[in-house]
Amino acid sequence: MANVPEDLHYSKDHEWVRVEGDQAIIGITDYAQNSLGDVVYVELPKTGEQFAGNEPFGSVESVKAVSEVFTPIAGSVAMINESLADEPEKVNSDPYGQGWMIQLRMSNPGEVDSLLTAAEYEDFTKAESE
Amino acid sequence: MVDFGGWDMPVQYPAGTIEEHLRTRTHAGLFDVSHMGEVDVRGADAIAFVNRLTSNDVTKLVDGQAHYTALTTPQGTVIDDLLVYRLAADHLLLVVNAGTTEKDWEWIKSAHAGESVELKNVSSDYCQLALQGPDAVAILQKLTGVPLSDIKYYHFTTGTVDGIDSIVSRTGYTGEDGFEVYAAPQHAEKLWSKILDAGNFGSAEGVVPCGLAARNTLRLEAGMALYGHEIDETTTLFEANLGWICKLDKGDFIGREPLAQQKAEGVKRKLVGFEVTDRGIARDDQDVLVDEERVGKVTSGSPAPYLKKNIGFAYVPVEYANVGQEISIDVRGRLVCAQVVKTPFYKRAK
Questions:
Q1: Domain B37-124 architecture
Q2: What CATH superfamily is the domain B2-34+126-221?
Q3: What are the pLDDT digits (tens) for B323-337?
Q4: B290 HSE (CA, 13 A, CB side)
Q5: Which residues of B295-305 are buried (b: 16+ CB within 10 A; e: fewer)?
Q6: Residue numbers in A near B279 (CB within 8 A)
Q7: Cβ of B302 and A63 within 8 Å?
Q8: Yes or no, beta carbons of A63 and B217 under 8 Å apart
């Protein structure tokens, strides 16, 4: 069973969001990394870039395939996880920790309330894998 | 699981593509390649018939030997690449790609022009398991009395593996030493689990089952063509650097004339290997640029897990096909630098 931490928000594109004040840290879920397989390359935006929400901010590549990663909420990129350039495998080994991807300064912090809760996301992945 | 020419095939097993790839290079990997097609050709004219349809010289084979070759169109392009096994002077077995089996079979029947041969599509009569890697001989030897070390590369023998009648062939599609074992399909599961057991599957240095993704990265690193990517009915053997299986002096065969002409005139484009020198991974079908001009396309692009580089094959005009040529690749709108390199990318130590 994929690990779905209680304290995070989730999107139907399999991203997680951790809220810290007006900042949102975003990565991909355990379920997503497991379906992708070994991550060999992560492409991230530059700091300062603006996203309107529900748009791709980068891509994750396994040996076999390329997948876009989406930010479910709007904001500007405050930080990116630069260590993924040399250690993309962190996305597999620690998707909710060292495998984080970007930190956004949220345009509208209330937006996270529209995301899935851990329980809702778990139901969603169950339905998807059936 | 993915649909692969009508077969449900695993892209990867639990070990994952990278581990499957590395284990095959360092110890052993087991591949279920039962999807491959087989065509049986029997009769007094078996050699002459197959020699007329394929580009390599079938008359050079001896009993117990196989070779890599191509079915060619009258234009000299490639219907399929295949192995031809000589079981006897009047009995050949053609092993073709899964996705092209039906097309090949129709073509072979339609090309039959009165030769004394009996043709049979026997694809459902065989399972095929490929055990590849430096430990392949030692693992398979536990299951058979056939002296495996005596089988030379691209030779085969018939015998029993764990009591099951098999063709044991020292061939493969990974760039490693290893065997392809053909047997009746009802034995596939037993053979599969016996080979895994013999190879200590589950231990750190044991054999691992490998899926389609590792099969692709292994063949790519080893510089081998994949039908539908490097070769198809729009590419010729010389363009694909497969002149070594094109024996123009063996006598007439389908497509010989245009191929001879192309050899005399030289090709206009060529398949090259490249290594990405920037960060980024080139993928199939992406454009290749030289000096901002779009000059070609990637046929296969992937990370190479053993070499730890991002590599690929591409067709480019011959003037850009020299080793060292700087090219760039349009990776989803971003231009990534790459360099033409020698192939194979990987060659095992003998």
A1: 2-Layer Sandwich (3.30)
A2: Probable tRNA modification gtpase trme; domain 1 (3.30.1360.120)
A3: 999 999 999 999 999
A4: 18
A5: bbbbbbbbbbb
A6: 41, 85
A7: yes
A8: yes
